[in-house]
Specification:
Blueprint: E1 6-11, E2 19-25, H1 26-38, H2 47-53, H3 67-80, H4 91-98
Antiparallel strand pairs: 1-2
Amino acid sequence: MTSRKQAVALSFDGKSAPKVTASGTDLLAEEIIALAEKAGVHIHQDPNLSNFLQMLELGEEVPKELYLLIAELIAFIYMLDGKFPEQWNNLHQKIVETV
């Protein structure tokens, strides 16, 4: 049995729940991934999460049961991009300096 490549793209405006903006398998998944890479979008590979998100319709919000997981991914991506909450008072710099 050959595994199918799949991709799901989410958008998050910071005000409402993340929404599915693209979804596909095989060639469409490859195109979604290629467009994301070209745009500099971070890609998270998690087959179980992707399987679940594939069940959602385009424009549908991520269910509340996934909020914590998606929030952790968004926070991690923000950190990769060098974005930190103001309340941290440059805590990330202190962490880097101690390493």
